Amino acid sequence: MAALLRKALKKKMFHPNGDRLFAVIEVMTTTQEDERYYLCSSVTNCKEVQITFVKNIASSQDEQFEKINTWFLEDLKLVDGKEADQDNPHFDMHFDEVYGWETSSTASKYTFVRCLQELNHHYLGKKILFVNFDIDYLIGASSNLNRGDFTESRLKLHLNMD
Q1: Residue in 51, 68, 67 with CA at minimum distance from that of residue 117
Q2: pLDDT in tens, 90-126
Q3: DSSP, residue by residue, the chain
Q4: Which residues, in sequence order, are CB contacts of 53 under 8 Å at separation 6+?
Q5: Deepest of 59, 76, 129, 144, by most Cβ within 10 A of its Cβ?
Q6: CA distance 4 to 43
Q7: Which residue in 123, 157, 161, 125 sits closest to 143, CA to CA?
């Protein structure tokens, strides 16, 4: 299912603009009923790293998606993991405003944040603060990203660093 979702998003939202999709994660919302929402990380053809909030519009015939918001990784100031020493699927991303997210697992949250770290390292080299994370999980597992070793759960993430 994760591969099909990633393929549909890539084909319909990112590839037509020349953007390269790196990660797709499912996030929960308070208004979520039968709707699904995703955070996607991508790189534009101008080498700008973006994080896009996407809504999956249910359709019996074809997958349809709607961009709700897009932020540049360059504008990300801080990522707050909420609690480093507890199993907590919540995290905040601080841009000009603070946006809170809930995933289905702590492992998935860490996987997405490691992806942001890798994209920042590769494309920006900017200092982004990562607070309230277990440093062993953030740094120790980052070398596994290029091998494709990561957790998949209801929060689906696919990282392709080719």
Answers
A1: 51
A2: 999 999 999 999 988 888 888 889 999 999 999 999 9
A3: -HHHHHHHHIIIIIGGGT-EEEEEEEEB-TT-SS-EEEEEEEE-TTS-EEEEEEEEE--SSS-EEEEEEEEEGGG--EEE-S-TTS---EEEEESSSEEEEE-S-HHHHHHHHHHHHHHIIIII----EEESS-HHHHHHTGGGGGGT----SSS-------
A4: 37, 38, 39, 67, 68, 69, 70
A5: 76
A6: 20
A7: 161
What strands lie across the sheet with 78-80, from one edge to the other?
98-102, 90-94, 78-80, 129-131
Structure tokens at 161: 């660093």
